[in-house]
Write a structure and sequence with these properties.
single chain; 425 residues; alpha+beta; 5-stranded antiparallel beta sheet; 4-stranded mixed beta sheet; 11 strands; 10% strand
Length: 425
Amino acid sequence: MKVATRIRRSARVGRTAVQLWLRYKAPAVGRRLSGREPASAAIMNRRHERTADQILKLALSMRGVMIKMCQAVATRADMFPPEFIEKLKQCHDAVPFQPFEVVRAVVERELGKPLDAVFSEFEEQPIAAASLAQVHAAKLHDGREVAVKVQYPDIEDIIRTDLNNMQRVCRIYEFFDPQPLELMPLLKELTTHLSYELDFEREADCSERVLELFSDDDRVKIPEVYREWSTKRVLVMEKISGIKITERAAIEAAGLDPADVVQDLMYIYVRMILAAGFFQADPHPGNLFVTPEGQVIVIDFGLSKELPEGFGLGLFELMFSLMTFNESAMVRAFGELGFRSKSGDDDTFLAIARRMVSRSDSGSFEGEFTEEMTDELFAAIREDPVAEVPSDFVLVARVFSFLSGIAHTLGSRANVLRAMGASTG
């Protein structure tokens, strides 16, 4: 990447950071000096909306880490206001794609052959575009239909530049703010995730690991990776067609019961998370489909996570203690999952649990992590932050919340405990 480009990206990030700092800090200082009350909730909501809109526009124009940062923020309702979460969710779907000639050059360089030496057909228009890569439909000379995931050129240099910029901004922010929002751990987590997603050979390994996990189960379909045509920056895999997981009418038109689809989907994630301790950690409607025969298709293993030993048992204990409201078991489960209290007072966890359960439909936990429950969990943490919220728990909570949203779209319920019975039965 050219020096001028690096300087330009750094300047845009720095300028935006200063604008956001002034937007939030200057009014707060002015109100404090004049003796006025802090800004009302309505004022802060409008400020959050304006800020989130500005950040989204910046991310879509700069791409790279900025998009990934927005996606990371959109998963951390425990740290950021709802206006940020809702607006920045769009980063999953609004990413512009690169021209075909750019894609062709990457594929030919990586495979060391002209495009038509490998593919008899290659669609110029992508079927999906994300922050680091885009996917094209193609056909091999032996007739196999494939999906080709192609990493953007120079993306590693762009990411390195943007990460340096973000680290600089975070250090300055945390130095000057006496009560900072701790962004460096989030940035460190993002750096780790990016290293995963940039390595398509690792993604192929993860895909094959999940394929092996479900090799004995015809309810699940994981696309096969064609290693002979895949590299660290190009991934060629089996192209599988299906109905988008949220399209209830199409699922019913295929003669499938949406409740069965939900149950199979829950079973897949419960088996990955609780049984295998390894799961696809970036679920969204573009990654999940169902075939007319009822198989659930899971794709995109770029962000797959290995969970710490004992995590599944801790999560099960937390769910069971929430059902029975066994306070000592609840505190123990939070500790086993990696939560740490700033004060060392266990009442923090009990208060969080009470707020979660209060948002369930029945007023008690019955096996479903609803969006409302996880939203309440993260709101409680924002208002009374604990010393450490484990990122693995945030990812898993996000997964179950997302599955609950899908279930409700399909007119069903995403019961984790029921799925556990199916995965062990």
